Amino acid sequence: MDNYMTQKHVFSLIAKGHVMKLHRTFSIFTFFAFAVLACNQASATATLGGVVSLVGGSGACNFSKLIPLNTQQDTFMLSGATGCLGGSSSVDLQGDAATGSVGLRATSSGNGLGSSQAAAQVYFSDHWLLSVPTGTAVGTYTIPVSLTLEGSISAGALSSFQFNRFMDYNLSIRDFYAGVSTTTLFSTSGSITSTGTFTQTFNGNVNFRYFGPGSGLPMTAEVIASLFLPGLNEGIVDFYNTASISMILPPGFSATTSSGLPLVFAPVPIPPAAYLFGSGLLGLLGMRKKHNQ
């Protein structure tokens, strides 16, 4: 049978409010998270944290450590290892606000039935501030976004029999000042249940509202990334520095983290006007020019 000490450590922390539990249905997670965040102003610093819980030697040795998920910081690293009586486990976590990425790597070696076990979670959230060129018209701009997840699970790896999956992931980006809808939120979530290499980039679009200079409501993207390892009994799960969020900004646009760190995204080879929807300002300007001629 599984040795559930690792899960008990992790979920006791969840019960105390230190760890955000990942719901397998993202819609539940979305409405819970955004219901809370809607009442808050955009943060001044990214939040990064994680939890590690390890068991070795059928519980004869263990290791647990928590950095609260709401810790305000721009970089994050947490590692732990334990081993005794022929069993060992380890975890490495990292997060970086400047690259909009998180990573998780875990190993476990024992009898495959829970004598050794690794469990962990890493969580990142931030508010990216988007700057626009002088003279940009008020309106809604559709910006391409990408959510990337790459990693591998070693052949012969075994997850905890209690969970029957290796890892859960959640990645999302949305207009912070808009309601949650299919046009203002792009997200992906799921579980990885088999061994092998996992490489996936999810591409979509998010509408961002620009209210004009001096409005007090800058164009702001809220980003969230989380990786959750419920229980690894045997093998290696390596998704270190491979979960990331990015945008393709119109020419002249720029982006920074909430604490002012620059974010570098590839420009798109089309004019900024192509991103303007709904305001009708470009049509009016064209008609006025034709009338003057």
Task: Describe the secondary-structure layout.
Blueprint: H1 5-15, H2 26-37, E1 47-56, E2 61-67, E3 75-84, E4 87-96, E5 101-109, E6 117-131, E7 139-153, E8 158-159, E9 167-175, E10 185-192, E11 196-210, E12 220-247, E13 254-256, E14 262-263, E15 276-277, H3 281-292
What's the domain count? Answer: 1
What is the percent of helical residues? 10-25%
Total DSSP E strands: 15
Strand content is: over 45%
Number of helices: 3
Largest sheet: 15 strands, antiparallel
Average pLDDT, rounded to a whole number, is 81
Global outline? elongated
End-to-end separation in angstroms reads 83 Å
Secondary-structure element order, as H and E? HHEEEEEEEEEEEEEEEH
Integer-rounded radius of gyration: 22 Å
Structural class: mainly beta
